Amino acid sequence: MALPMRNVLFLTVLLLLRTTCEAQLVKHRTYLQISNFMAKKLTVHCKSKDDDIGVKILAPQASFQFSFRPNFWNSTLYFCQFIWEGGSHWFDIYVQTRDQHACVKNCNWFVTKTGSGVCRLIEGEPHLVDMCFPWNDASSHH
């Protein structure tokens, strides 16, 4: 009788470990929003290695949102092409190692009024800028 009880205890512990590990592997969903703060329309095309979000055309002051689950390996990358009259640039809009702590659930970005780069807002503070970034180098577009 002791042997079957030991097996039941072992299987119970194993099942608990499996459930705990699976919970750690499934990351929360991140919502990424991009807003156009320029005075002209902005065409945005975002994608990752595996997922093409598609082309969105944003009027001035308009925005769009998409969501995803960051991966376990901390290598999630989404990049976008931004096109407007007189300009076209690429930017890595979500780099997991850069953004995972600043954008826990919501990652809000806007293209600056001058088109000189993109800025990330502080999560939970829709009017406070966290950081602004320049566009990717022309040689590093995806």
TrEMBL record:
Keywords linked to the UniProt accession: Secreted, Self-incompatibility, Signal
Any one of the GO BP annotations: rejection of self pollen
This protein's GO CC annotations: extracellular region
Localization annotation: Secreted
Keyword Plastid among record annotations: no
InterPro entries: Self-incomp_S1
Signal sequence, start to end: 1-23
Domain of life: Eukaryota
PANTHER family reported in the protein's UniProt record: PTHR31232, S-PROTEIN HOMOLOG (PTHR31232:SF149)
Similarity comment: family membership: Belongs to the plant self-incompatibility (S1) protein family.
Name of the molecule in the record: S-protein homolog
Lineage of producing organism: Eukaryota, Viridiplantae, Streptophyta, Embryophyta, Tracheophyta
